[in-house]
What we know:
The chain has 286 residues and is an alpha/beta fold. It is 36% helix and 19% strand. It has two domains: 12-123 and 276-285, Aldehyde Oxidoreductase, domain 3 (Alpha-Beta Complex), CATH 3.90.1170.20; 166-269, TIM Barrel (Alpha-Beta Barrel), CATH 3.20.20.70.
Amino acid sequence: MIEYKQYTSLPKEYIKRKIHEFLTEDMVNDDITTINTIKNSSEITAEIHALEKLIFVGSQILPHFFNSKCQFKCYKKDGENVMPNEKIGKIIGPANIILSIERVMLNLIQRLSGIASTTQDYIQILNNNNIKILDTRKTTPGLRLFEKHAVALGGGYNHRLNLSKGILIKDNHIIAAGSITNAINLIKKNNLDLPIELEIDNLYQLKEALTMSINGVLLDNMSISNIVKAVEIIRNNKNNSQIFIEASGGITKKNLQSFVNTGVDGLSIGAITHSAISKDIKLEFI
Length: 286
């Protein structure tokens, strides 16, 4: 079986570095509006509220937006259900600091909470604990680790983080290498200590794949009937019965249930990241 690292927590230094990058992007030459309208940075209290139901992501992230001049308290845990109008957190500190970070802070937790909520939607519709909902590399450039973190907190599973963390031989690799056998033999020749997964789109490719020693098979854009046949072939092969089997391609909330009895171990779904809609979260002074 293939098991990749799950990003339920994030390194503090990574969070701080990314927040600095995001704030610098938004304040290239300071916050011109705030510094010219607020002369005395008096202490003020602000609250963060959810305006719709969501799976919250941000308890590990939000504290790093504030310096020592601010007090921040988070009322919700990562992965927790939050209902409309519930309070997520409270900030006490200078108005100018809170105003300058407000938009970037909200953008990030809205995006991540949207991904976690979408992931949870898929899990509830599937309603099968034997099949993992997996993410993909179809993430926003610069936000991948955050977005995979959100998938994990939404109950999903993280596939390989990047091109260095696992071997996934796809159709264009096979064409470039000349064949499935060539591609796998070239990899094994280099003695890489990484799991090998092969993407196939027909049963002919599967038969060739099973003559090699691999760790996973990705059944891409195959019909449900062919997925069932592929799973049966793999499970009945004494040398490959423990292969991790995942399906991908065109999986939506509408057709998700059709995969329940296929026997696959996982469904990789790009939509949980690339098509997730940000949740509505607001900050207001009180």
